[in-house]
């Protein structure tokens, strides 16, 4: 009730008192003492009832508002907990789960309903990750690292932190933080330094050695020419490696430009096969392009970028296919996509390496054994080029003999959805 209303009530009471006083003075003796009392008491009672009712309604409204605020706050807190990227598991001293949030359910792979109560013990017996979360004795705010390999062969890392919520009741909070990405980046950083040191050091050492031979006293013209070619070849390797690194930087920063146009994939594959002829002839490898009967293999894309993807597949096949081997190139229709396939009779790919083939700096152990040189960047770049064009890139083992099958798909021109990112 605001000040104006209170003043109004006081004014009303004062007016009533003034009216009674006026009546008494104007008509003395006409009213009994009891009547005068009624004139005052009844309005006062009415005023008290009105004021009491107003304050009661106000009080009840305040209580209702407080309850509503409490419910809103509780909902918000629950939403915050549910949307946290860290997993939260509350359990008692015996390991019985009291509550979990969505992130914890995803990390553990079990729902809250299954986890609560005695069921948690049975699940923990089968789930080593859950067992470590619930049963591991930890000091207050201690961090425990736990890692395991999942069914797809991916290594996952988690950081578990203990916080006591209620010591008397024995309620304990375990915070589960997924640090797999951080570990992966640390590993990649280490591998990057190792790879780059080696990849740059080898060509630079060769260049330095060849330059020393050229200026040596015993260097004849033939020897000088050989060393100059050595310098040029190693310089080309450094240029290629630097170019790949710059491409990766542009890809990851969204600066890898594309000039979109209608492309005849059959014509492009023919050109790339012709460009690789000299390289394939050196190993007496037969490269056959099985050109499709019809000519409607038009895609919308950047010619130089898609050409680089085709060239990468073809160069890799030549590199890892033995002398007098065979490479077959195909273009196929796959619904609203055109599929480019490179099938070779090479060494193939290790089964455990398949899931990592298109990741940055990765090289299969078979490739390392056959060729010590290689940056592990080519397939990563191919994947990103094709993805930006709305397609996909992949690998599958040959079923009809040794070798590999690499492919990528691109939408046919009339189904391509124009994107601003592609036109940049």
Account of the 3D structure:
α8 (221-252) crosses α13 and α11 (303-320) runs antiparallel to α13. The protein folds into four domains: 3-81; 87-178, Beta-Lactamase (2-Layer Sandwich), CATH 3.30.450; 184-252; 261-415, Histidine kinase-like ATPase, C-terminal domain (Heat Shock Protein 90, 2-Layer Sandwich), CATH 3.30.565.10. It is elongated. The protein has a five-stranded antiparallel beta sheet. A five-stranded mixed beta sheet has the order 7-9-10-12-11. A two-stranded antiparallel sheet has the order 6-8. The chain is an alpha+beta fold. 52% of the residues lie in helices and 19% in strands.
Question: Which terms summarize this structure?
Answer:
single chain, 424 residues, alpha+beta, Beta-Lactamase, five-stranded mixed β-sheet, 13 helices, 12 strands, disordered C terminus
């Amino acid at each position: 009730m605001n000040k104006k209303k209170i003043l109004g009530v006081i004014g009303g009471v004062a007016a009533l008192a003034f009216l009674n006083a006026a009546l008494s003075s104007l008509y003395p003796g006409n009213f009994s003492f009891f009547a005068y009392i009624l004139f005052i008491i009844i309005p006062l009672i009415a005023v008290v009832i009105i004021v009491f009712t107003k304050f009661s309604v106000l009080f009840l409204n305040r209580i209702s508002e407080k309850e509503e605020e409490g419910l809103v706050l509780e909902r918000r807190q629950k939403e915050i907990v549910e949307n946290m990227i860290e997993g939260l598991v509350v359990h008692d001293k015996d390991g019985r789960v009291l509550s979990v949030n969505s992130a914890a359910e995803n990390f553990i792979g079990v729902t809250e309903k299954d986890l609560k109560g005695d069921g948690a013990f049975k699940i923990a017996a089968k789930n080593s990750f859950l067992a470590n979360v619930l049963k591991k004795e930890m000091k207050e705010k201690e961090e425990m690292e736990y890692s395991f390999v999942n069914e797809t062969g991916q290594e996952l890392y988690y950081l578990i932190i203990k916080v006591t919520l209620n010591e008397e009741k024995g309620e304990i909070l375990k915070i589960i933080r997924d640090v797999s990405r951080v570990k992966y980046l640390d590993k990649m950083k280490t591998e990057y330094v190792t790879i780059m040191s080696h990849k740059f050091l080898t060509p630079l050492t060769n260049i330095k050695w060849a330059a020393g031979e050229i200026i040596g006293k015993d260097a004849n013209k033939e020897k000088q020419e050989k060393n100059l070619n050595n310098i040029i070849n190693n310089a080309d390797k450094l240029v290629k490696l630097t170019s790949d690194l710059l491409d990766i930087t542009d890809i990851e920063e969204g600066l890898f430009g594309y000039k979109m146009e209608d492309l005849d994939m059959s014509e492009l594959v023919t050109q790339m096969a012709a460009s690789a002829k000299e390289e394939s002839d050196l190993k007496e490898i037969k490269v056959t392009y099985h050109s499709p009967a019809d000519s409607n293999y038009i895609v919308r894309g950047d010619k130089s970028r898609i050409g680089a993807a085709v060239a990468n597949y073809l160069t890799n096949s030549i590199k890892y296919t033995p002398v007098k081997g065979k490479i077959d190139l195909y273009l196929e229709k796959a619904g609203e996509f055109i599929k480019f396939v490179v099938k070779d009779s090479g060494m193939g790919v290790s089964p455990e390496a398949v899931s990592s083939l298109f990741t940055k700096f990765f090289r299969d152990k078979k490739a390392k054994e056959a060729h010590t040189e290689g940056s592990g960047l080519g397939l990563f770049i191919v994947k990103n080029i094709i993805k930006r064009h709305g397609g996909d890139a992949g690998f599958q083992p040959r079923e009809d003999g040794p070798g590999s099958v690499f492919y990528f798909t691109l939408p046919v021109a009339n189904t391509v959805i124009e994107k601003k990112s592609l036109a940049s």
